[in-house]
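Sample intake sheet
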Amino acid sequence: MTRYTYDSDINGTTEIYMNPSVWYPNGYKLTFAHPKSGKPMEGVKSNTTDGGHYLNFWFWDPKAYNQEETDILITPIKNETEMSGRILSEFGNYTMDYTFTD
C-alpha cells in the first residue's frame, strides 16, 4: 500500500515497479481509494509494461483529483480455492447448492 498526492500539472503516467514473478505470481488486485472514506476512486486507468514489471496509471479526468491524496493497494491473489456443497433446510424440504471461489 502506498499513499501519494496526485498533481495534475505533472504530465504523463505514474509508474510503480512490481516484480510480478516474485510478489504476484498468481496475479493481483489493484485498488485506488480515498484515504479518509475508503471509497474507491473512479476513473482510474492502468496498464502494465515490460512484461508486467511496471504498473502505469492515470486518471481520465485529472482535474477531478488534483491535489487529492490517493491510497493505492496492490493485493496478491492467492492460489484459488473452491468449495461447494449442499445446505439442507431444517424446516420444510428445501436445499441450496453453492459454490464459493476465493
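Comment: The first helix runs from residue 20 to 23. Residues 2-77 form one domain.
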